[in-house]
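Figure 6 in text form: structure in, sequence out.
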């Protein structure tokens, strides 16, 4: 508009005979006043509302729910069915008689059993499995190792951290796993103990040296191994540079992240993380 006014002034000054009602190049009278509206179409160009659709792009809640790095400790407060306040990374130093039971079991071949009476005194209950028909499976530990107590009747419900004493009446080698399968004279101490948990992520887990220990692992499902007894499936779980077989009744998919705390089991001599209780493991897709 400033240029057009300048040209009009110059034309008048030169006596060009331009009248007060001007005509634009199209010959339309009064087109100058109309041009301003069509030239300054800032409303149609500055469509900031349609371009800045930040609400649909910034869907951070849905994206961050699944962005989990399986090889990092993505929930450091998780210890399965264990009370986190009782967990320790310091191995037990008490002698509760588990060493004598392990020595007795070392002479047993798979399928064999011993009925020698074995005294267990003030052992720590390190984890508790399932209860079926009034019979409970649990694990005990001391400074010499850990043992599974398989499906026995107890006078009360066991919990991790409780201290228990009993006389073992039967010790059995079940396909390479040593189990106490019968006992009597069970008593629980009024005191509790911390529960040892081994940080196993990235470690090659050896059943021979860590049988029955609570193992805490986080990693990624990298292979589906198929059915492996009952209604369970087996998977390869990569944690750091190590890989361990994971057995679970919970259906998993390739790429799932798993975080678990479970007693170390075995199958055919190979270490296995057997999720017998649903609360022992959490997953992320």
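Output sequence:
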């Amino acid at each position: 508009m400033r240029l057009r006014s300048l040209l009009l002034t110059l034309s008048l000054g030169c006596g060009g005979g331009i009248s007060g009602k001007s005509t634009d190049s199209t010959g339309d009278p009064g087109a100058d006043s109309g041009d301003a509206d069509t030239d300054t179409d800032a409303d149609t160009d500055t469509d900031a509302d349609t371009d800045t659709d930040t609400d649909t792009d910034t869907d951070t809640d849905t994206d961050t729910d699944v962005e989990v790095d399986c090889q990092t400790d993505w929930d450091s407060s998780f210890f399965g069915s264990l009370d986190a306040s009782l967990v320790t990374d310091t191995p037990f130093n008490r002698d509760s008689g588990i060493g004598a039971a392990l020595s007795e079991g070392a002479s047993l071949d798979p399928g064999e059993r011993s009925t020698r009476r074995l005294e267990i005194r003030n052992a720590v209950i390190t984890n508790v499995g399932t209860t079926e028909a009034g019979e409970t499976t649990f694990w005990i530990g001391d400074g010499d190792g850990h043992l599974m107590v398989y499906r026995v009747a107890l006078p009360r419900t066991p919990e991790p951290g409780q201290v228990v004493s009993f006389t073992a009446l039967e010790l059995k080698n079940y396909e390479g796993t040593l189990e106490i399968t019968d006992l009597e004279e069970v008593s629980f101490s009024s005191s509790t103990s911390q529960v040892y948990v081994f940080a196993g992520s990235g470690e090659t887990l050896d059943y021979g040296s860590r049988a029955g220990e609570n193992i805490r692992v986080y990693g990624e499902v990298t292979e589906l191994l198929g059915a492996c007894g009952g209604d369970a499936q087996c998977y390869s779980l990569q944690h750091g540079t190590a890989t361990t077989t994971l057995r679970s009744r919970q259906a998993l998919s390739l790429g799932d992240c798993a975080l678990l705390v479970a007693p170390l089991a075995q199958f055919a001599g190979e270490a296995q993380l057997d999720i017998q209780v649903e609360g022992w493991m959490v997953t992320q897709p």
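Caption detail: DSSP finds eight helices and 14 strands in the chain.
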